[in-house]
Amino acid sequence: MSDSDGRPRPALKLPGANALGTLLGSPKAQLGFAIVMVFVLAAVFAAALAPGDPKKYVGRPNQPPSAQFLLGTNPQGKDVFRQLVWGSRLSLLIGFGSAVLMTLIAVVVGMVAGFYRGVVDDALNFVMNLFLVIPGLPLLVLLSAYLKPGTATIIFALAITGWAFNGRIIRAQTMSLREKDFVAAAVVSGEPGLSIIFVHILPNMVNIIVGGFIGAVTYGIMASTGLAFLGLANTADVTWGTNLFWAQNGGALMIGAWWAFMPSGLAVALVAFGLALINYGMDEITNPRLIAERNILRVLWKARLPLMRATPVVPHEH
Amino acid sequence: MRYILRRLGFYLAALVVAITINFFLPRLLPGDPAAVILGTSAAKLTPENLRAVREALGLSDAPLIQQYGLYLAHLLRGDFGLSYTYFPTPVTKVIANGFVWTLLLGSVSLLLSFALGNLIGIYGSWRRGGLVDTVFPPLLIFIGSFPAFFLALGLLYAFGVKLDWLPISHAYNNRLPSGFNLPFLLSVLEHMVLPATTSVLLGIGGWALGMRNVMVSVLADDYVTMAEAKGLKQIRVMFVYAARNALLPGVTGFGIALGAILSGQVLIETVFSYPGLGFLLINAVNGRDYPLMQGLFMMITIGILAANFLVDILYTWLDPRVRTG
């Protein structure tokens, strides 16, 4: 664990000025970002990377990986490599699209609830707690059974079921920022509430919002993949979830055709892992408790103190 | 007591909202919802059944508010109509069967992941920077990054198909007479190993990391240092002094974790054909069994709300500050 200057920086900085620095300031976050970028680039350059229609029948089903088919063919005789690369387009679109929507709802509801006291807060807080206790995936399953499956539907359904978790965190942070002097100054100078919220408070919680956004992308990709695997998405689309649906549908696992499963499943896992790394890395830099902890650990290591104690104790020298 | 009543009020309000969602969802169907619903499986049903189903879903030409009243009346009587896929079994009976299995699998995996996760978290914070503390967090995050069904399929393939150690589907051996006899219970246990392991692997990381982080700050508290200074045994300091207080935030997370576990369990049950509520839900959706779908969503929501309420009660008992506050 080595950071460039070795000195903890203050958590509050100029509004948003250093957002990218915070985002990628730790080696963990850089690794995570690199992993995610590989898939984003694959999605953007899909046509160059894996030319050809991913839905086309290319050869005998369930062929193992070969020079002709890099990752083999699936039970429907389609090229697994093409499916993997082209699948990243819709999967990432759904993940990021639903995350944008979720974050928007969470920011607006969470900040308004946190800034205003009384009835507004009570009502919005009730709505947030409500969405937290109503089981997400079963509701998603029901929604996709009733609505026509499609990319827009999925994004909309994910946003409805997933925004409340971030909304609650944003509300809590707004409530604590509301007590700061700069907010009091804005109130005294007669600025309207909404402008205080979005001009003064919002820039001070970019870290939390970005963290929540990253979590939302993970939720969007995971949940949409699960739905597609269950056959509840449009199975004519090519996403990592529908790839897995078709592999399962053709009994790839029972035949031992692991190559039909592994690529898309690993892609989802790697993107989720990369996003988690970015979030943990960000936390390491901005969370004062973690900074303090890292400093303590460094002292412990340097002094060669025994690790196994609740409170570090310097052994008595005889 | 006031706190408990306030929470009860919230859950009742949540229940009303869930019922309302349940009422309006079929009406989202394009065109005449009754025609779509009835059209898909009309072949199996007599006109008599059709009318019963329409009534159970509250679908009629009456004004919306009147339909809602009718729907509520049926709900209060516990009448969800008849299932299409398990025709002519009432939906309530199908759900009761599934509920037992979901509760069994869910509680076993929740307790296991809670206990193991917290133990790993406690041990990690104790030997901070040690092997467990450096290896487990990233490993658990990585495992937790896999979609639930993918991990389930992996375990199914490795231990069920390749090694052939464990059964790959269903909840018990149906050639054995069911009841409280040893061979049957053993077969239930055997069938639970793979689905429960999947669920535990997915859930354990969150508990471990949460517990570790809270422990780290609790360990810095004065009363822990005091306990150390008194020369108490390490194990006593860790469990009786620190871990006991560090558990509190985890208990709050319990309620939300329930929803997450259930969501994961829908996928896990489907992969292992484990006959719980999640498996039934997916079957109902695939079979266009609307009454069963509606009933299941209602039942799952009631279950989650009830469990959350129990957690609230447990919390007042654990944390006296809530009682007075």
Model description:
Chain A has 318 residues and is mainly α. Chain A has helices at residues 19-23, 27-44, 46-49, 80-115, 119-133, 136-146, 151-162, 164-177, 181-188, 193-201, 206-229, 240-249, 252-255, 262-286, 288-303. In chain A, helix 2 (27-44) runs antiparallel to helix 14. With 325 residues, chain B is mostly helical. Chain B has a single domain (91-324), classed as MetI-like fold (Orthogonal Bundle). Chain B is globular, with a radius of gyration of 24 Å. Chain B starts with a helix and ends with a helix. The model of chain B has no long low-confidence stretch (mean pLDDT 81). The interface between A and B is large, with 54 and 65 residues.
Structural category of chain A is mainly alpha
Largest sheet of chain B: none
- The overall pLDDT of chain B, averaged over residues, is 81
From the coordinates shown, what is the CATH architecture of the domain at 71-285 in chain A?
A: Orthogonal Bundle
Rounded to the nearest angstrom, the distance between the terminal CA atoms of chain B is 10 Å
Tertiary shape of chain B:
globular
What is the CATH architecture assignment of chain B?
Orthogonal Bundle
Total count of domains of chain B: 1
Q: Count of helical segments of chain A?
A: 15
Find the CATH superfamily of the domain at 71-285 in chain A.
Answer: MetI-like
What is the CATH topology of the domain at 71-285 in chain A? MetI-like fold
Provide the β-strand percentage band of chain A: under 5%
CATH superfamily of chain B: MetI-like
Tally of extended strands of chain A?
0
Give the quaternary arrangement of the chains: heterodimer
* Residue runs with pLDDT of under 50 for 5 or more positions of chain A: 1-17
Question: Helix coverage percent of residues of chain B?
Answer: over 70%
CATH topology descriptor of chain B: MetI-like fold
The first-level CATH class of the domain at 71-285 in chain A is given as Mainly Alpha
